[in-house]
Predict the structure.
Amino acid sequence: MEDIARVKRRVEELRASINYHNYRYYVLDSPEISDAEYDELMLELKRLEEAHPELITPDSPTQRVGAAPVEAFGIVQHPLPLLSLTNAFSGEELSAWHRRVTNLLGGGRGFDFVCELKIDGLAVALTYANGSLTTGATRGDGYQGENITQNLRTVRSIPLSVPKDAPPRFEVRGEVYLSKAGFKKLNDERAREGLPLFANPRNAAAGSVRQLDPRITAQRPLDIFIYGMGWAEGKALPSSHWETLEYLKSLGFKVNPNVALYHTISEVEKYHRNWVENRESLPYEADGVVVKVNSVAFQRELGNVGHEPRWAIAYKFPAIQATTRVLDIGINVGRTGSLNPYAILEPVKVGGVTIKHAALHNEEDIHRKDIRIGDVVTVQRAGEVIPEIVGPIISRRTGKEKVFAMPGHCPVCGAEVIKPEGEAMHRCTNAACPAQALERIKHFVSRGAMDIDGVGEKLCQALFSAGLIKDVADLYYLTREQLLSLERMAEKSISNVLSSVEKSKERPLARVAFALGILHVGEETAELLTEHFSSIDELARASREELSSIPSIGPKIADSILAFFGQGRNKRIIERLRKAGVKLAAEEAKARELPLAGLEFVITGRLEAFTRHEAEARIKVLGGRATSDVTRRTSYLVAGAAPGFKLDRARALDIKILGEAEFLELLNRAVVESE
Ligand SMILES: [Zn+2]
């Protein structure tokens, strides 16, 4: 008997501790213990409950894993309806609402607003009785919703129990959502399993919450923000919305941190404007700002009209999604010969901009999303990025849609198209393909490359069509007369072009290496290459071994560099660049080489003097690199206390192993050297 009392006490201790750490982790985002320690607590509780099933309570943290599937959801009557909000789509509509509220409150009385982000998820109501979550329901039609308690229990940021001083019975309201990252992960998994993809995080959240099998819901990374209290019994509640949010936080609920209290409507406008500009930075989707009158007394006075409260309004963000039709799928041939498909759309306005095209990346992507020619699709624009297609609206298919297939021949030059092993892109095999040549020229003059001001895409196109340039070297042999022969070229712009071309001869080596347009050599790789080779000639002479001994230059890049310099055409271009006076070597050897440059370190085990992160930072400052895998490129393995399997691997590869003392000595020597 005494024994069971002890077990019961331990079970309660464990539950309290797990609830506390859940709260730190999921609500405050600031855990105090490691995942492993947390797992241990959970495991102990599970074992005790398995041995004593009579001790299991519905609010035990073990019950989040998801109960058995339900046949269908029961109906929950909402004691106090969940109203919907009036929308405002413009500043004028917001002002009109403000005037109405001011008048209804009799003019002269000042009042405050609380602004919150409108999270794009699924509205739910959670009821707590005697300290425990008893019911979780969807909003439904506002008067009755579906009972999804079992599913909501699996959402880690929903407390299953609340502190003792909470009202005996109360209801909170919130928005269940899926973060952008969670949404992407979920869709990636579904794509791998060949399941249909969710169109957006809201659909995914709604689909997850309404799963008949709570075990599936439990696997979805759902989260919640609580934004208000529906009703409460047996306790006086705060007199303002702002204080209510504070109170909810004190009860352990997760409240969105981006709330603000304002006195004037122009501040509200500013808050809205700020989030229109910065919504991309949020880790979840928000589709507007909810503005509420702060005072609860004023809220009561204002009351509702129909299903909508007069004291709140949703001031929406401009839409970034719209639906339109895919008229056709076109293909651009890139500078590396890649065939880049894009959708030709029926023009549609998205977030105030008319879009006609959307990126489609590659054939696999088109088939993964199941986009067909003729489909009605959802398109979305995010910031400055090229619009993309979220997915087709399957229910609007007529059966006449056509499945897209990559052509077997280049649409520009007619050469054979191949899809290299392990690559997503199809490529034109003709090195002399005019489309590729033009794209290479456009790349060469572009901002991150040779940055030839005044020679934009249009001029490149015109020069290319007129036969005045066939490759990048031709740019440096353009004459005033040739430029004059082009239509619409004024004297002044010709001088501009010629002087920009002249100036570009002095670009740093890394820019030149990037501008050449070697497949897989982006800006960063070009930078890295010039740390090891002081001229284009040296790079061109490098062997496969030399190239792949450079950290982060894999065999794919090495092969591509070799192939580039192996082509006679490219050799000729480089010779003509040299003759024109384009600088093909680094300024001079670096004035002071950092002491650990070219060395790669792997740290294993625990160091006494500093954390691994600090040690890695020290290596970096001195010019070295810290990586996590032991390879034959590793220069040193630093072995602290209790080293792992990396030590064995380093021994097997005959890599120099440093103890902490030796490592410190090496660092100190390097510091002295660099001073
Ligand atoms: Zn081609």
The chain has six domains: 2-56, 86-316, 320-430, 434-506, 509-580, 600-674.
